[in-house]
Every structure is written in C-alpha cells, then in structure tokens.
Amino acid sequence: MRQDIERLAAFDDHGEGGNPAGVWIGAALPPAAEMAAIAREVGFSETVFAAPEGEGWRVRYFSPASEVPFCGHATIALGAALARRQGDGRFALTLNAAAITVEGRHDGARLQAALQSPPTRSSPAPAALVDAALSLFGYSQADLDPRMPAACIHAGADHLLLALTSRATLARMDYVLDAGRALMQAHGLVTIVLAWAEHDQLFHTRNAFASGGVLEDPATGAATAALAGYLRDIGWPHGGRIAVVQGEDMGMRSLITAEFGTDTGGTVRVSGSARML
Questions:
Q1: Of 261, 257, 260, whose CA–CA distance to 270 is shortest?
Q2: Residues with Cβ within 8 Å of residue 249, at least 6 apart in sequence
Q3: Which residue among 37, 119, 214, 237 has its CA within the 20 to 30 Å range from the CA of 65?
C-alpha cells in the first residue's frame, strides 16, 4: 500500500458507507502519466492530487481509466485532509477549467467538509441520447418521471440525468460496463445520474461511472451539484436545499447535502462528512 496516499471515505453516513477517495498532497504535481498510474494502483473511483500554488492549491483528479475535470467526493476528502494537516479553514483550489473552494473542519472526532462547485447549467437531453441510455439500463419511457425531464446537467463535469418513477425502478439499475463506457465517451459524459424524488427535498440517486472504469459510484458530489442546478433551472420547489441518499443499493449508504440559490448558473454548496480509512 502506497504510503504517500491518504485514504478517506467522503459523504459517509455517521461513520459508515461513503465513497472512498485517494488523496495525494505534495510540493508539486507529478506528471500526468504518473498520476494516472497512481490512480490505477489505488483503485478507488477517484484519486485527487494537490500541490501548493500561490495562496491556494493546484488540483487534478484521476479515475482508474481517465482524468476527470471535477470530482465532488474527492474534493470533500481533500478538504478533510487539509483540515487535518493545517487546521480548520477554507482552501482555494484551481482545477483544470475552474476555480473553487473547499472548507474543512473538525467536528469533535469527526471531519466535515463543504465545497463550492463550479458554475452550473442544464439543457434538455437529445431524444437519441435518452433512448440509448434507456436501452443501456433496460428501462422504458414509462419509467421516467415527467416532472423532471431527462437533461444534460453540468457542475464542472457533464452528466446525463434520468429521473425515475419509483424507488424499485432505481434499485434494479444494471448495465454492461463496456457498453456504458462507449455511450458515455461518445457523448462526453462523466456519469449517468439516475434519480428518484422521495419528496421535494429528498432524492435517492445512483451514478453509473463507466467512463472512469467504475460500474457505480456510491457518492457523487459533482453530480449532486449538477442535479441541484437542474432543479433550480426547472423551477422545482427545492427551498434552497436538497439531501441526497446514494450508494444504498451497494451497501455503501452515503449522505450528501446541497444548498443553492435561484441565480441562473449559480454555484452550489455541497457538504458532508468524511472519515479516515
């Protein structure tokens, strides 16, 4: 096991579940090929790499199969790791295509973190893409919740959102990894988000992450931020805050909170706890 990697689970549920992330912090970022190799060796859905730059940190994210423009759970893990090293605070992060912040703090024996996402946007998903995604998962148009039309959503990374009519439909998510990877790569998608609204402010989600070589991600902060921006865009009665339960069907229940305003394109505050592994 590499000694230069901290391992944390982000968005855990009171000390259980969450999404594991690798955190590498050093004086200068390694070459991209080396970061990719480290991420493959660590084997988590993402490993985040951070090095000091100016008054903040230069950050890049790698999955086992590709570089990712933005990863929420790894950013939460990084915020917690920086708080452990430097004390509670807000840290400026420079990504490949955005500048964001993450806060990390101690809460007794626990660690809490909150990121402020890149700007958000959403648009209706092309019919051909929706049909292909439904075919991938073995769903039909009747499985889609008409209150939340299928959309391409973004908060630092691109996702397809399919909102489903029932928790049971969400629970039976399944697909072939290679077919999912081909679809996501063809359309520039980082994940496909499947969501069910238990009520206006509580959502259950599952995230297919075949583009990164991962069948399913148990907690996806970037997709949660994008979902929040989408709900704002369609006029959903969100009240400025939603909670997301993810990873439950994997036995890795995760809890994510998103807080946001009404401004078009506005950023989203995504928060949760983290624990050392």
A1: 257
A2: 170, 171, 173, 206
A3: 119
Residue 1 lies in a domain: no
Same domain, 126 and 248: yes
Q: Give the whole-angstrom CA distance, residue 237 versus residue 219.
A: 23
Is 169 domain-assigned?
yes
User: For residue 214, what are the β-bridge partners?
Assistant: 209
Distances (CA, A) of 207 to 33, 117, 211: 26, 18, 11
Q: Same domain for 97 and 130?
A: no
**Residues 270 and 159 reside in one and the same domain:** yes
For 54: left if phi > 0, alpha if psi spans -120 to 50, otherwise beta; the answer is left
Q: Using CA atoms, how far apart are residues 120 and 158, in angstroms rounded to an integer?
A: 10
Domain that holds residue 95: 6-116
Residue length of the chain: 277
Could you tell me if 266 and 147 lie in one domain? yes
Instruction: State pTM to two decimals.
Output: 0.96
Provide the token pair at 19: 């999404």
Count of CB atoms within 10 A of residue 249's CB? 16
Q: How many domains does the chain have?
A: 2
Would you write out the chain's pLDDT as a tens digit for each of its 277 residues? 778 999 999 999 999 999 999 999 999 999 999 999 999 999 999 999 999 999 999 999 999 999 999 999 999 999 999 999 999 999 999 999 999 999 999 998 889 999 999 999 999 999 999 999 999 999 999 999 999 999 999 999 999 999 999 999 999 999 999 999 999 999 999 999 999 999 999 999 999 999 999 999 999 999 999 999 999 999 999 999 999 999 999 999 999 999 999 999 999 999 999 999 9
* Tokens 């805050």 sit on residue: 241
